[in-house]
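tokens incoming
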């Protein structure tokens, strides 16, 4: 499957030169294969101040009360979530192509650009990255799980990181895209379980990884499953928030 995923590489690069997914201009030589340095500058990054629980950016004038509307009513099972990008503009387009356009390789370049965020790197370093699973049927249909690809890429680039597919999605849920906040939480409630034979080490820190954090419902459900299995320190991360 990895070979099929990467058919645009190698010899095909010589026949069909690659363009940047953002600027549509020819790629320069560098570590990224589909996202140029200029294109990466067009990705909307999240800077502080941001919610210390879900990572949502605080826009506008700050007041003494920094309660986050995205965390209201969720009481997330993860300790903290960090996202380097906002899911808008080119970031949203790239993620849409990763998930629905059969372009899993774009996740590598977006994850590489995400590692320029110091807080994101520090948040992941030394942890066990647990990708949000797809239901088996959806996985067969799509041919890959983008969260797994993201987690694997990040683990290879960060010291002390490892990946572990500890979770399974036991029920096929509706797409979260058109659901509101309450519907998203209900949709994924009890959707995940510990994978058969998987074990959790209470002494390790686990970070649940996904492509996008919208309401936090999916990451919360996965983190709650890990805590029920015995994990004492569970955080979350996604490439984009929104």
């Amino acid at each position: 499957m990895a070979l099929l995923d990467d058919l645009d590489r190698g010899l095909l690069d010589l026949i069909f030169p690659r363009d940047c997914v953002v600027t549509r201009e020819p790629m320069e030589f560098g570590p990224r294969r589909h996202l140029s340095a200029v294109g990466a500058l067009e990705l909307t990054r999240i800077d502080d101040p941001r919610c210390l629980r879900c990572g949502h950016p605080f826009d506008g004038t700050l007041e003494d009360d920094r309660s986050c509307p995205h965390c209201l009513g969720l009481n997330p099972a993860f300790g903290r979530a960090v996202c380097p990008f906002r899911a808008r503009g080119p970031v949203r387009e790239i993620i849409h192509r990763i998930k629905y356009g059969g372009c899993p390789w774009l996740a590598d370049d977006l994850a590489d650009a995400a590692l320029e965020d110091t807080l994101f790197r520090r948040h992941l370093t030394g942890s066990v990255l647990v990708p949000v699973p797809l239901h088996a049927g959806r996985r067969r249909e799509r041919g890959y799980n983008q969260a797994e690809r993201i987690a694997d890429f990040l683990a290879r680039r960060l010291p002390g990181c490892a990946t572990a597919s500890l979770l399974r999605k036991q029920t096929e849920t509706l797409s979260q895209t058109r659901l509101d906040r309450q519907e998203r939480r209900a949709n994924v409630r009890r959707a995940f379980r510990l994978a058969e034979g998987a074990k959790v080490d209470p002494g390790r820190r686990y970070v649940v990884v996904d492509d996008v954090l919208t309401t936090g419902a999916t990451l919360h459900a996965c983190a709650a499953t890990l805590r029920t299995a015995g994990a004492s320190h569970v955080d979350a991360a996604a490439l984009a928030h929104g």
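note: The chain is about 35% helix and 15% strand.
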